[in-house]
Amino acid sequence: MSRAKEAFGVYVHWPFCLSKCPYCDFNSHVRHAAIDETRFASAFAREIETTAQRSPGREVTSIFLGGGTPSLMQPATVGAVLDAIGKHWKVVNDVEVTLEANPTSVEATRFAGYRAAGVNRVSLGVQALDDASLKALGRMHSAREALDAVAIARRSFDRYSFDLIYARPDQTPAMWADELRLAIDEAAEHLSLYQLTIEEGTPFFGLHQAGKLKTPDEAVARALYDVTQETCDKLGLPAYEISNHARRGAECRHNLVYWRGEEYAGIGPGAHGRLDIDGIRHATATEKRPEAWLMRVESSGHGVVTDDLLNSEERADEFLLMGLRLAEGIDPDRYTALSGRPLDPKRIALLREEGAITVDATGRLRVTSSGFPVLDAVVADLAA
């Protein structure tokens, strides 16, 4: 397959938030002084230029502005970043350009500006559709404000998505089914539905350890997962990845780049990338601290602090780990080509027998609905 036909994504990380959510362990930072957006836009452009010199000749098929909270950026800053990408790489005509946004009324007023700058898909961090849950999750918006922002997104963009978190404290399967139905009425084509996980180093972790935050037990969490699958299937948004649901053809093309093991550039503080240079896969990561990243870029053209060369085994394991998250599964021949050895047929036979995976007539391997809740164990078994 020629280079031009392969997907190539560019991920751009805007690291700033108005406040830090108590469940979040992403690279996000709160700054009380004004952010020098012009300086950051110049640094993004510089790092894009340097990265394009390392990976020339690519055709960008998707761009994702994530964070942090990218909807705190002025539309002009977004426009400058998109212009820099277009200057240093070729961009396909139907490129998917996603921007993550908080559904506050202030940020929703910028949607028309983002559209004019070149964004054609927005992903809204709604997280819950009731006010008590939003307050408990440390969100800055109300349920009404979130739904109003979704309506503005619908008017501004052909494609939009939003996130919800489930397995929240005191949430029952019946409550979640009602919330999901309301979400699907509003969602049009795509939903990201994440089970609340308690991450070390977050305020929720401390509360959970102290017994002040109770999340649903394993049985309830499994029931909530099952309700998620059943409700979304019935209402036309089946899972195409373990936490992502879409109408056919409305999948997030950028995230498919990650899950299919394709190439992407990581730009901005704390961004990760996967680049093929001289036939070798490089796993890159940039300096996480925004101001330190800025100084690195201004002095040396990039903020990369990690540039690991993945060997064939590591590359194959990553392909397995990411690819089996997808409903479409993986082609075992690609695993063999990457690792130099086939998957163990005995292990495949055993997992099939247990109902965790299926293998179709073409040999494609997929995790079943009963295998998905124990996906990590399935991947570990196959990779052993």
TrEMBL record:
Taxonomy, top ranks, is: Bacteria, Pseudomonadati, Pseudomonadota, Alphaproteobacteria, Hyphomicrobiales
According to its UniProt entry, what is the function of this protein? Probably acts as a heme chaperone, transferring heme to an unknown acceptor. Binds one molecule of heme per monomer, possibly covalently. Binds 1 [4Fe-4S] cluster. The cluster is coordinated with 3 cysteines and an exchangeable S-adenosyl-L-methionine.
Q: Which domain of life is it from?
A: Bacteria
GO molecular function terms listed in the Swiss-Prot or TrEMBL record: 4 iron, 4 sulfur cluster binding; coproporphyrinogen oxidase activity; metal ion binding
Q: Taking every annotated instance into account, which residue ranges of this chain make up the domain Radical SAM core?
A: 2-238
4Fe-4S in keyword set: yes
Q: Which cofactor does it need?
A: [4Fe-4S] cluster
InterPro entries the record matches: Aldolase_TIM, Coproporphyrinogen-III_oxidase, Elp3/MiaA/NifB-like_rSAM, HemN_C, HemW-like, rSAM, rSAM_sf
Organism for this UniProt entry = Bradyrhizobium rifense
Keyword terms, alphabetized = 4Fe-4S, Chaperone, Cytoplasm, Heme, Iron, Iron-sulfur, Metal-binding, S-adenosyl-L-methionine
Localization per record: Cytoplasm
As given in the record, the signal peptide range reads: none
The UniProt family comment states:
Belongs to the anaerobic coproporphyrinogen-III oxidase family. HemW subfamily.
- State where it is primarily located: cytoplasm
Q: For this UniProt entry, what's an example GO CC term?
A: cytoplasm
Protein name as it appears in the record: Heme chaperone HemW
